[in-house]
Design a protein that fits this description.
Belongs to the Orn/Lys/Arg decarboxylase class-II family. LysA subfamily. It catalyses: meso-2,6-diaminopimelate + H(+) = L-lysine + CO2. Homodimer. The chain is an alpha/beta fold. It has 2 domains: 158 residues, Lyase, Ornithine Decarboxylase, Chain A, domain 1 (Beta Barrel); 178 residues, Alanine racemase (TIM Barrel, Alpha-Beta Barrel). Helices cover 30% and strands 26% of the residues. Strand 8, helix 6 and strand 9 form a beta-alpha-beta unit. The protein binds pyridoxal-5'-phosphate. Pyridoxal-5'-phosphate binds next to helix 10.
Length: 424
Amino acid sequence: MIISHRPFHYRNRRLHCDGVDLTTLAAEQGTPLYVYSAEQIIHRLSLFGEAFAGRAHTVCYSVKANSSLAILRLLAEQGAGFDIVSGGELERVRKASKAALKRIVFSGVGKQVWEIDAALKADILIFNVESEAELALLAERAKLLGKRARFALRVNPDVFADTHPYISTGLREHKFGIDIGLARAIYRKAAKSAWLDPAGVSVHIGSQIRSVEPFAAALKRVLALIGELKQDGMDIRYVDAGGGLGIEYGAGPFDPETQVKGYAAALQRIFSEAGLDPHLLLEPGRFIVAQAGALLTQVLYVKKNGAKTFVITDAGMNDLIRPSLYQAHHEILPVKQSKGAEDVVDVVGPVCESGDFFARDRAMPKVKRGDLVVLLDAGAYGMSLSSNYNTRFRPAEVLVEGDEARLVRRRETMKDLLGPEILT
Ligand SMILES: *Cc1c(COP(=O)(O)O)cnc(C)c1O
């Protein structure tokens, strides 16, 4: 398999991440281990900057895709803003970069009082409000704290995005956002409040979307609404186009630069048609970090059950749940390059669930106990969706910077796992 557009490559028949030999790294840090390329993350961010040059914009990286403090700091140093969905993510951004607090957009359907208060005090850029009840609460908290809250309604444009149903969000039947047909009236009412500043309109139609049409269709509806709100006298300065730009998880051809350029061209066309020029906010998550990362794991056993061969790895669904949750495909490569025979196998973890698998009936080079393999494209929704199910330690994380590998999260210990529990 050709490992294009990813930081992973063979050198002397050993898999490397940029300049770092993964065999050596596994010996030093153990497995399972998440490995990320700083260079690839910065490169992906820069693609947005280049494609949207000439338009006032801020890339607000979606923290939930991978919330590692080291990655947040790396992105903040490049000037990125952040899309957060909880008070916990707000604290992560604060810890990574105080200067980035003012570039935060706060999304999410269930914001709590303490989270709203913390974001108001931090003077974030804008709240993406998802219901009238939330808007009322925001006004109440803003008044109490003596702040004027900048907000955008997250509208639901009723656009179908062809992706996995669990990560599609732009239809009326989804829990997200406010029906775009109702938005104008809500803005008008909110504009009367001294504590609310109707500063933007936002939309996010889902994740892992591979064609640009739904993004363009959603933006078109949003800009039409902004036109109406301007007629109503509102100073709408921001349009948030959300995240959701997809990647190629398989071995197929994929050029990230072409992808972002096509996306930008589609959005730019809609802007020109509408004759509006608000500051554009973008919330990519997956596109920036997914392919920069991989999960490095060791083969524990190879076993045959009837006609099936199972490769059992020391990583499981608690470490990377995407295959189990979304039937997601991840390419799997042996760390030692092999030109030998292939086998058709199921690659599974040690967790006590039949859903604990990484690949089914996958043709791959024969591996044996002790061999290392990597699951590619695990940088997004990997570690951030991990758990301690089966009382397993979550993986350690390493950030590769050129030839250097830096441990950015140590492996958990038994004390981390049992610490919060109370026995009388
Ligand atoms: C999850 C999410 C994103 C990021 O989606 P990606 O597919 O990772 O780009 C952006 N905005 C909102 C509101 C989200 O919920």
